[in-house]
Amino acid sequence: MALRLGTTLHGSKYSFRLVEKLGDKTVFNPVFKAEVLPGVQSILPRDRWAVVKSAVLENQTQVDCLVKEYKYYKKPSIESSRNFRKLCDIINDPIGWTAQKPFCLAFEWMDTTYAHVKLFRRVELFGNAAQNGWYISSKAKYWPETDSAQPTWTEDTTLAEVPFGEHMKDPVLVADIVKVCLADLKPANVLISSVDGLSKVKIGDLGLAGPEGGNPRWVQPEAFRAPEVWTGVSCYHKADVWSIAAMMLQRFDPNILGNADNIDKTRIHPMAWCLAKIILLFDPSCNSIPPPDVDKTLQAYFKLAQNLTTTQAKEDLDELLLQIPSFEVWADLAMDAGIPKVVLDVIRLLAVPNPMNRPSALQALQSPEYKALQKAAAAYVIYNSLLRSGIR
Predict the structure, then answer these.
(1) Where does the record place the Protein kinase domain (predicted)?
(2) Model confidence at 274: pLDDT above 70
């Protein structure tokens, strides 16, 4: 039977009443907010709510991903990590799964996701409507000036730091140690509670995780997919590192990566459009991203991506079709718009097109750039606490 609102499911510890359907266009499994009720254990946990995740039995991909996620959560290194969302309970058995007794996982409740946290004072990004390209222009709205005794950082600083901050080092390092690629790092899978206080941030959804080098082609979300994954290499740890940088970058400029603004998805393949953006941003000389070595189709898409970096718009032959500046130009404009240098330095550190030269998570965490980011974020937390208490 399909799971419906109002249904009560019985787990090994508690019961769960489904009260709200969750998810967005990037979530394909049935996911629900559930009220935790007494079950085998009569003493309820502190949290009243949980997230119940299942799969459509007829959809083998969903089933496989849910079972794989369950197996990964049974690994001690992941089960004990404070930065993966906790698995609270199991509903029914994955072996002998039936429509009447669906296998479900019950996870701890988190308030929101990185994708849904709104910036308090967001930099206005002006797109070139004729070219459908996005960039931070000289028209960008500056944040209000503050007196010199106060940091000029806003809520944006801390939230931009979230994907790579202290909260993220545990899951990325754990994955590297056990040679697992998370493969699905995206804003919707970065879960946050207590946004207005000392935020608790965790990673959710391990359904696409897998052994390094053992993932299907193009498993990462398009906007956060590493260049080497686009060209046919399977996911390794450093592909996750790229995704972290991409999340930070997209926070300030939503269409600077990815395929959402592709002007003609029927004619321009996502690989070509997305790689062209990466080349313009990080590899203008077109010599850092290793090209596909065997697959003729991928080689053709790669060549098209290179051509797109020099293709001119039909409306104005003086303008490029893709209005994407180099990262250094973008970073200068971003700093003028109020984005802190320490955030941009970390993006620059991580977003290296050639994975051979890209740092691992451990190397990045030991870098001067990350330590400067930590220091800046800590100063912001202190300032914000004083601000909330009325001390200026």
Answers:
(1) 16-370
(2) yes
